[in-house]
Amino acid sequence: METTVRPLGGNVYEIDTRMAGYTGITAGYLILSDRPCLVEPGTSGSAPVVQAALTELGVGPQDLASVVVTHIHLDHAGGVGDIAQMYPQAEVVVHEKGARHLAGPERLMRSARMVYGDKLDELFGELKPTDAARIRSVEDTGSIDLGGGRRLESYYSPGHAKHHVGLMDSQTGDLYVGDAAGIYVQETADVRPATPPPDFDLETALRSLDKFRSLEPERLLFAHYGPVTEVADTLERSAEELRVWVDAVKDARDLGLDLDHAVAMVRDRTKDRYRMATELTDPEDIAKYEILNGTESNVAGIMHSLDKHA
C-alpha cells in the first residue's frame, strides 16, 4: 500500500491518512520515541494506510505503546477501534467526556449517520468499540509517557468540541492542536474556523486559544493539515477568524435569515479573507475542503451556539 510519510524532526513523522481517498486532508502523527505514540489515527477507512505507514517506520503490532486523540470526531478518532485491534499493547488516551463513546460508539454513530447519511461509510467508515479496560481518560490535564523522560501533556481545550484536548510534546515543544485552532490550508496558508454543531462556543474557543498561547509552543501540528512554525501569528489569526464568522452569522440571524441565506451571506462576507478562494482551482482540492470544512456546517454550529445563548 502506498503511504505518504514525512519526517518533521524530533522523531516525529507526519502520516497522510488519506481520508476518503483524498491526499492532504487529515494528518496523523507518529512520535517514534522509546514508547511509540500515534496521535490522531484518523478514520476507520484510514486504518490500513496508517498501519502500512507504521510498518514502514519499523513499528510492529506489539510495539505501539499509545494511541491518543485530541477529540472523538470521526475524522480524528474513527479508526481507534481498528488500530486498537491491530496494536493490542497500545493504551488509548482520550478526554473523559469522550471515553464512553470509544467504548460504546453506537450513539455517536447514530448521530453521525443522521448528519452524513449515506456518505458516512465513504467518508469515515464505522467506529468500532474499544475494550474499556484499554482506554485511559484524562481530565483538565494529563500525561502520556513517551519513554526516556519524554512526555505528551494534555490540556483541556473545548470550544470546538466539549471532549477536545491539545497535546504538548515535552521534548520538541510541538503542540497538537486538533481542531481547536481551526483548519490550516497548506496550499495557501489560510486559517479557517472549525465551528460545527453541537458544541461550538465562541468564548470557550477563544479561552482555549489563550491557553495554547500560554504554553509557548515551538510549533503547531494541525490534524488538517501539517506543521506551522508561525505560532503566535497563526493563533491570532485563528481567533480573528472565529470573531469574524460569528459576527457575520449574528448579522444574518438579526435579519431573520434561514440557514441557506445565512450561508450565502457569510460566504460573501468572508470570501476575500482567503487566498484559497482564488488560488485553489483544482476541483478535487475544492471538493476536499468543502467536505472537511464546509461553510454550511460552520454556520449551523454558530447558529446553534447563538440560539443556546439566546
From TrEMBL:
InterPro entries: Metallo-B-lactamas, NDM-1-like, RibonucZ/Hydroxyglut_hydro, ST1585_MBL-fold. It comes from the Bacteria. CDD domains: ST1585-like_MBL-fold. Pfam families: Lactamase_B. Residues 25-224 form the Metallo-beta-lactamase domain. This is MBL fold metallo-hydrolase.
